[in-house]
Amino acid sequence: MSEEKKKKDVIRLEREAVIPVIKPKLIMNLANLIEHSSDRAEFLKLCKRFESMIRSWYFLQFEDLMQLYSLFDPIHGAKKLEQQNLTSEEVDILEQNFLKHLFQVMNKSNFKITTEEEIEVAHSGQYLLNLPITVDESKLDKKLLAKYFSENPQENLPAFSDKYIIFRRGIGLDRTTDYFLMEKVDVIISRLWSWLLRITRLQRIFLRKPLERRENDRKKTDEIYSEAEADLFVERIRIENMELSMRNLLGKITIQEPTFDRIIVVYRRAGTKTKTERGVYVKHFRNIPMADMEIVLPEKKNPSLTPMDWVKFLVSAVLGLVALVGSLEMPKADFWVIAAVLSGLIGYCAKIYFTFQQNMTLYQNLITQSMYDKQLDSGRGTLLHLCDDVIQQEVKEVIILFFILMEQGKATLNDLDLQCEELINEEFGANCNFDVDDAIQKLEKMGVVARDSLGRYYCVGLKRANEIIGTTTEELVLKANQSTISA
C-alpha cells in the first residue's frame, strides 16, 4: 500500500453488478455502432422483443409478490387477512413466502444485505450527524426475520438482522461545504482531551481497546489493498482528521463521505398483548451517507447528551467550583474575580448545552430531509419500483451480451465477461461487475445463443433471432391500434 493511501481515510468498495446506464441511451448508442441500417432496424426490433420476453417471464413471480404483500400492507393488510379467515399458522407460512419472494427480487435487482463489516465502517466516522442514534428495540418485532434467516441462513449478517434488515445498492459521493464552527471547536476540545490523557498516561486505561482495534483495522486495510487493487476506493474527508491551520479553522471547508445510492429497510413493528402485528414495512431511500446511515433506522429513540458531553459538563463544573472556593478563601475575595469564574463556568456549560441543541436541530433537519427528500417510496410503490428495476437490469444485460456476441463472434464465458465490462466502460464511462452467467442463461433459454463443441458461445443472426422469438403481444396490440386508427 502506498504512503499516500495510508495517510488518507479510504474505504474499499466492491464494484456493483448494476449497469448504471439508462436503457434508451444504451440501446441507441449500441445501435449507432452497427454499420448497416437494415441490421440497425433488426437490432432495435430485437431489443423490444427481448424486453417483452423478460417481462413475460417475471410477470407471474411479480404478481405473486404483490398479492402476498397486499395481505401484509401495514395500512390495508389487516382487513384483507380477516376476510381470508386464515389460521395463525397459515398466515405464518404466507408471510415467509412473501419474504422469500421479496429477497429474490432484491437479489435480482442487485441489492445486497449490509454486512456487519459495512455497518462498522459506516459507524466508524461522523459526517453531518453528530448525535448517537439508537433504535428502540422494544417497538420492533423479533420473530419474523429471525424465522426467515433460521430457515434461509446467510453469512455475516449484522447483529440487528432479527429486528430489521438493510439492503443497499450503488455507491456515490456526498460533499458539503460550510464553516462548521461548532464542529471545529469540538475537534479542538477532543484533541486537547487526548493530549491531557497522553501526558497523564491515562490513555492506557481509556484508549487501549480503540488503539488495538485501530491496529487490526489497519492490518485488514493492508490486506484489502494488496488483494483487491481493482476494486473501487473512496476517500472520506472528515473534520476530525483535518489540519488545525488558521485557514481551515476560520474559513469554509469541504467534507466528503461515500453514500449508498439506494437503501431499502424492511421491518415489522412489535405487537401488543391484545393484538398481533402483521404489517411489514418496506421503505426506500436514496443517497444516504454511510456515516449517517442511522437516519434510515426504524423506531429511533430521541437523542440525548453523550457520555463525553456529561464528562465535559461535570469536569468543568468541578473545576469551576474549585476555582470559586479558592477565590472565596482568599484574604480579600474580589467580587469581579468571583463573577469571572462564575461567568466562565456558566458560559462553558451553556456552550455544551447549545452545541447539543444545534446538533438536535441538525438531526431534526436530517430526519425531515430523509423523509421528504431522500425517501423515494414505501410499501407497494417500492415493490413496483423493484419489479420494474429487475426487468430493466435483465434487459440491459441481455442486450449487451448479445451485441458482444454479434460483433465478436465465438467466445468463452470469461472472455464475454471481460468484453461486456470493457464495452460499458469504453462507450458509457461506467464500471460494473457484469453478471454474465445470468445473461447467457436467458439468451440460451430464448434459443438465440448456443455453444459449440469447444464450449464457446455464439449467437444466431439478427433476422433469425427475431424469427425465433416471434411476434410479441405488444406488437400485436400496436398493430391492432394502428388498424383501428387508420379505419
Write a brief caption for the model.
The protein has 487 residues and is α+β, with helices and mostly antiparallel strands.
Task: Tell me the layout of helices and strands.
Blueprint: H1 3-7, E1 9-13, H2 23-32, H3 37-72, H4 77-84, H5 88-108, E2 112-113, H6 116-123, H7 144-151, E3 164-178, H8 181-199, H9 203-206, H10 208-227, E4 232-236, H11 246-250, E5 253-267, E6 281-289, H12 307-328, H13 335-372, E7 375-378, H14 380-408, H15 413-428, H16 436-446, E8 449-451, E9 457-459, H17 462-469, H18 473-486
Antiparallel strand pairs: 1-4, 2-3, 3-5, 5-6, 6-7, 8-9
Helix pairs in contact: 2-3, 2-14, 3-4, 3-5, 3-14, 3-17, 5-14, 12-13, 14-15, 14-16
Keywords: Membrane, Transmembrane, Transmembrane helix
Organism: Aquilegia coerulea (Rocky mountain columbine)
InterPro entries: DUF3754
Protein described:
α2 runs antiparallel to α3 (37-72), α3 runs antiparallel to α5 (88-108) and α3 runs parallel beside α17 (462-469). The strands form three sheets. Strands 2-3-5-6-7 form a five-stranded antiparallel beta sheet. The longest helix is centred in the last third of the chain and has 38 residues, at 335-372. It has 487 residues and is of the alpha+beta class. The protein has helices at 3-7, 23-32, 37-72, 77-84, 88-108, 116-123, 144-151, 181-199, 203-206, 208-227, 246-250, 307-328, 335-372, 380-408, 413-428, 436-446, 462-469, 473-486, and strands spanning 9-13, 112-113, 164-178, 232-236, 253-267, 281-289, 375-378, 449-451, 457-459. The protein is built from 18 helices and nine strands. β8 (449-451) and β9 (457-459) form a beta hairpin. 58% of the residues lie in helices and 13% in strands.
